[in-house]
Design brief:
The chain is an alpha+beta fold. It has two domains: 115 residues, no CATH class; 95 residues, Chitinase A, domain 3, CATH 3.10.50. A four-stranded antiparallel sheet has the order 5-4-7-6, sandwiched between helices. It starts with a strand and ends in a 13-residue tail after the last strand.
Length: 248
């Protein structure tokens, strides 16, 4: 394919051997090539610094450990994170919700679906008491049979985008916009809400510190890889960025 890193060729055989590891990627070939290029850049830097190891993965891990240094999260950073995201550290929070799902299908255009859903939302804003009736008429979810009711929901029971949206609504509130998820477009209303109990800071302080330090390290690795890629003479491919399963 004519791809090289600082004069070292990425062979077709190497790409073929790498592809089975990326079959779930949107573009397995592209992901495989990018992965090989990044590994080559890292291993060449390990060579330059004289880093040895029993295998390539060990050498790359040693390279990151040696070259990427980030401070551990301190008390102030942990408390700020805790206080700014109380929903992450609450237990027992429950919402009773209902929705109308406009499911995306190959036979119906998204534009038509959105227009229909928006018109129903406007109608519900004027006449919220019609929610159950309209759910039975329009919703593509089995919950349509019970007026769109999803029952009681706790965190972790729904897809992240739905959870984030529904837990932000107040008791009795009808969402003022359509929610888009992998399932389609939703009109959502929270009927009842039970606030959760905040877990004490001391109980989650260590977990927060570990997560903040890990996030800082991942950013540091990403920046380091961008520097190495910027220095390298890479021919035959333009990288989307220095992101890779190597650093996730």
């Amino acid at each position: 394919m004519g791809i090289s890193v600082n004069g070292v060729e990425i062979t077709d055989r190497a790409i073929e051997n790498e592809m089975p590891h990326h079959q779930r990627a949107e573009n397995p070939l592209k992901q495989s090539v990018q992965e090989l290029v990044l590994r080559t850049v890292l291993l060449q830097e390990a060579d330059r610094l004289g880093i040895e190891g029993e295998d390539d993965d060990t050498r790359i891990e040693t390279l990151f450990t040696q070259e990427v240094r980030v401070p551990e999260a301190d008390e102030e950073a942990c408390r700020n994170f805790y206080q700014g995201r109380p929903e992450m550290f609450s237990s027992g929070e429950i919402v009773e919700a209902r929705h109308i799902l406009f499911q995306v299908t190959p036979t119906v255009s998204l534009e038509f679906l959105r227009t229909t859903a928006e018109s129903i939302l406007v109608e519900l804003q004027a006449q919220p008491e019609r929610f159950a009736e309209l759910a039975k008429m329009y919703s593509n979810c089995p919950s349509a049979a019970v007026g769109g009711s999803l029952g009681q929901l706790t965190r972790g029971q729904t897809v992240p985008e739905f959870e984030k949206y529904v837990f932000r609504l107040a008791e009795g509130e009808l969402g003022n916009r359509l929610l888009e998820t992998r399932f389609g477009l939703h009109i959502v209303q929270v009927m009842r809400k039970i606030e959760g109990k905040l877990v004490p800071f001391e109980a989650v302080r260590e977990e927060i510190a570990e997560n903040l330090t890990l996030a800082a390290w991942q950013r540091g690795v990403h920046q380091y890889m961008q520097i190495l890629v910027g220095r390298a003479n890479i021919e035959g491919i333009t990288l989307d960025g220095a992101e890779s399963p190597l650093v996730q």
